[in-house]
């Protein structure tokens, strides 16, 4: 017996395999659409940070000319939407992986040369051969090249055909008024499971009588989708919804329909471990601002890193490339030269992965994280894995760290690890680190070192400045190691060791 949803879309009640025909699989569009056009290495380098400021996406999407495979002495045809999206989000996707690593290595060299120039202007001579501020080791490749992302965020907006209920990623910008939402079916960095959930979500909202929310002030409800997966096979889906002026009864109806679609309808093929719903009137909200409501399944998903089990909440930070994270965390322990008497200060610790992975090598772990649910995860992770030499503090690092270090009297050596967002560290955090004499080694992990992190580097390494309350001895860049956590993109994770 079939049930009719209010939109007139029938599906068998609680038939786990039903609706497969309605699902357009992520692999349905042929790779034949992706013309493997090759561009000179210099053309890619020119689009990287430190070479010039033209947007890399524009360069990548530009039609290629000249001879060679895909060119044959003529101008290439205009890129398909799939290619334009791939060029915007993963500009290096056309290149063999070893060439991608070469491109990224050259980019990191330019960043270290820029830092050397900045320090020279402050009267600090640190230049190494090649004009670098410190030695740069070869880039550590990702163990997984395709489908490595364990978290994907999909937007809802107008697609190439004008349909406002398209679920995908953006080409263009809102400022230029050329924003188009393109399905991510062909993106090499996104796993099939994420694409499957995105397609199912699109099918659901296209059969919903409610509009998508393109601009908050113009109404509409359906917003972005976040998909998280783990090596255990767990899948968490988080759907953001603008309530506008809907009452509680209408909201309850939408939540019920979503739950039924993903548990009994066509969306059951996704086999979700967790289905969350967030009513949000802002661009991004924390759980405290707009609680994540569990509609179905388990409240958490789990991942294993270096033999430890980690619990992950909807908005908790976890490195997007799990396999790459293991190599990164091992390097942190080696570079930090941690020992049995070391205190590891893990700033912006997320679920505690870095600290807990090194806990058995050190005396004590102190973690700080702004997301309260992530700290709850970190404490659970420590207890579950039998780790007791740790403490985790919830709050903004600029509020917690200065207070923590103000009366620091512990004589044990302190190694600090910072892994901030692209916004970098707050000045009060930098000042607290500079002024704590016990911190002799600092590991700064950044996915965008040419951005705000560059400001942090100069603040950490500049001469003492009483006017800015930077009283401690300056740090010196000692060694840099890039880790390719994001194959096919121009980004990588740079680990910069600073010592004093």
Overview of the molecule:
- Strand 4 (166-171) and strand 5 form a beta hairpin.
- The chain is 28% helix and 20% strand.
- The termini are far apart.
- The strands form 4 sheets. A 7-stranded mixed sheet has the order 5-4-3-6-7-8-9. A 7-stranded mixed sheet has the order 14-13-12-15-16-18-17, with helices on both faces. A two-stranded antiparallel sheet has the order 1-2.
- By secondary structure, it is an alpha/beta fold.
- The chain is globular.
- Mean pLDDT is 85; it is low at 1-8, 12-42 and 48-78.
- The chain contains 12 helices and 18 strands.
Compressed to H and E, one letter per element, the order equals EEHHHHEEEHEEHEEEEHEHEHEHEHEHEE
The fraction of residues assigned to DSSP E strands is 15-25%
Count helical runs. 12
Strand order of the largest sheet: 5-4-3-6-7-8-9
Number of strands: 18
Concise overview:
This protein has twelve helices and 18 strands. The chain has 500 residues and is α/β, with parallel strands linked by helices.
């Amino acid at each position: 017996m079939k049930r009719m949803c209010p939109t007139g879309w029938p599906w068998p009640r609680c038939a786990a395999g039903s609706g497969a025909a309605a699902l357009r699989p992520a692999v349905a569009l042929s790779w034949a659409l992706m013309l493997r056009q090759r561009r000179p290495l210099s053309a890619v380098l020119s689009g990287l940070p430190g070479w010039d400021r033209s947007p890399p996406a524009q360069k990548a999407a530009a039609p290629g000319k000249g001879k060679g495979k895909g060119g044959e002495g003529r101008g290439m045809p205009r890129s398909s939407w799939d290619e334009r999206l791939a060029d915007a989000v993963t500009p290096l996707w056309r290149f063999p992986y070893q060439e991608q690593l070469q491109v990224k290595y050259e980019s990191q060299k330019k960043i270290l040369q820029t830092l050397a120039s900045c320090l020279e202007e402050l009267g600090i001579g640190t230049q190494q051969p090649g004009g670098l501020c410190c030695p740069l080791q070869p880039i550590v490749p990702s163990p997984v090249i395709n489908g490595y992302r364990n978290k994907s965020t999909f937007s809802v907006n107008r697609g190439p055909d004008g349909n406002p209920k398209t679920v995908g990623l953006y080409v263009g910008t809102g400022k230029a008024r050329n924003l188009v939402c393109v399905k991510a079916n062909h993106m090499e960095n996104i796993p099939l499971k994420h694409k499957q959930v995105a397609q199912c979500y699109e099918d659901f909202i296209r059969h919903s009588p409610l509009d998508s929310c393109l601009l908050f002030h113009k109404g509409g409800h359906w917003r972005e989708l976040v998909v998280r997966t783990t090596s255990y096979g767990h899948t968490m889906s988080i759907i953001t919804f603008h309530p506008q002026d809907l009452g509680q009864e209408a909201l309850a109806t939408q939540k019920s329909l979503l739950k039924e679609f993903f548990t009994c309808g066509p969306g059951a093929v996704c086999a979700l471990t967790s289905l969350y719903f967030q009513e949000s009137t802002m661009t991004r909200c924390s759980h405290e601002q707009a609680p994540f409501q569990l509609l179905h399944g388990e409240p958490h998903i789990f991942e294993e890193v270096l033999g430890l089990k980690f619990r992950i909440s909807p908005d908790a930070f976890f490195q997007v490339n799990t396999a790459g994270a293991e190599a990164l965390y091992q390097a942190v322990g080696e570079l930090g030269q941690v020992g049995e008497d070391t205190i590891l200060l893990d700033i912006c610790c997320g679920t505690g992965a870095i600290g807990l992975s090194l806990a058995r090598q050190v005396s004590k772990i102190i973690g700080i994280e702004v997301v309260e649910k992530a700290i709850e995860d970190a404490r659970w992770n420590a207890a579950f894995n039998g780790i007791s030499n740790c403490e985790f503090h919830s709050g903004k690092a600029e509020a917690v760290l200065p207070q923590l270090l103000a009366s620091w009297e512990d004589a044990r050596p302190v190694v600090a690890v910072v892994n901030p967002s692209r916004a970098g560290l707050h000045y009060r955090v930098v000042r607290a680190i500079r002024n704590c004499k016990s911190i002799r080694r600092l590991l700064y992990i950044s996915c965008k070192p040419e951005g705000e992190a560059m400001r942090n580097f100069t603040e950490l390494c500049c001469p003492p400045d009483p006017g800015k309350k930077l009283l401690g001895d300056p740090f010196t860049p000692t060694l840099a190691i890039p880790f390719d956590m994001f194959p096919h993109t121009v980004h990588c994770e740079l680990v910069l060791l600073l010592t004093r």
